[in-house]
Write a structure and sequence with these properties.
Length: 156
């Protein structure tokens, strides 16, 4: 014997699995909300509001939670996330595409001055910076949900 004393009938394994699945769905929902709140708190400008989303879906390996920026504004998130100009992926300053009558790029008018080029914007890397905070918030929510699932299964 393995030392476990059982009184009465063994619990139905289908009921135990159903209880775990129901609690897992609740835990994933809470983890989604926690991760979305953590990601929105650190996002700059308009990216932190309703333009962020979180989804949770069941996969073969378990549950998958995704936090991201809505597709309509996703193209704009590339610039503050990765940088532009000399700080971006190309490493070159920004010039105007329109040319004057001699074929030279027209200058920019920036803060009352005429400048031939702009250095660009440094990347803020807000998605990478918020990832550990969101993961920690998800871990806390999932741990609490699994603890509730274990308590519920013990009562069956």
């Amino acid at each position: 014997m393995n030392g476990i004393q059982q009184h009465g009938h063994q619990p139905d394994p289908r009921r135990i699995l159903a209880a775990f699945e129901a609690e897992a769905q609740v835990a994933v929902r809470e983890a989604r909300v926690a991760a979305l709140a953590a990601a929105r708190a650190g996002a700059p400008g308009s990216f932190g509001g309703p333009n962020m989303y979180a989804t949770g879906r069941r996969t073969v390996y378990g549950w998958e939670i995704t936090v991201g920026i809505r597709p309509k504004v996703r193209w704009r998130a590339i610039f503050p996330e990765g940088g532009t100009g000399i700080y971006g992926p190309t490493g070159r300053p920004i010039h105007r595409k329109t040319k004057d009558r001699f074929g030279h790029p027209k200058p920019f008018y920036f803060q009352g001055h005429t400048v031939p080029q702009i250095r660009g914007q440094r990347g803020q890397h807000f998605m990478a910076r918020n990832r550990p905070v969101a993961v920690e918030a998800m871990a806390v929510a999932i741990t609490a949900g699994m603890r509730r699932a274990g308590q519920k299964a013990a009562k069956l």
